[in-house]
Amino acid sequence: MITFFLFHSSPGDSKGIGSSPTLEGDGCNSNSDSTGSALDYPHLYRPSRNPSMSISISTSRMIPSLPEDVLFMIFQHLSLQDVLSIRRVCRSFKDITHSRGLWVLILRKEVWDRDVPTPRFSLDHLSSAQIETLVASSLHLHLNWTSKSPKVIRRRHVTVAMPRARITSLHFITLGGCSCLLSFSLKSRVEPRTLTIECWDLSSLRCKARRTVQWFGGYAVNSDPESTGIIAIKTPYVEILAFDPSASSADLAFIPLITLNTAAKSILFFSGTTVIFRAPNDELKILDIIRPFYEIKLEDRQPFVPPNQPDSFEAVLNDEYAIILRPKTLALYSLRAFRRGSHPPSASLSPSQVHEFQWRIDSCVMQRQISPSAPYLSNDSKPSSLNILIRYSSLFPWPVNLLHHYILYPNDSYISSATNKHSSTTAGFAITSNNLPYKFPPVLSQTIVSPVRLFAITDMALGPYGTAVWFDSHTDYDGEVGQRSGVDDAFDGIWSSRDG
Question: Does the pTM exceed 0.90?
Answer without folding.
Answer: no
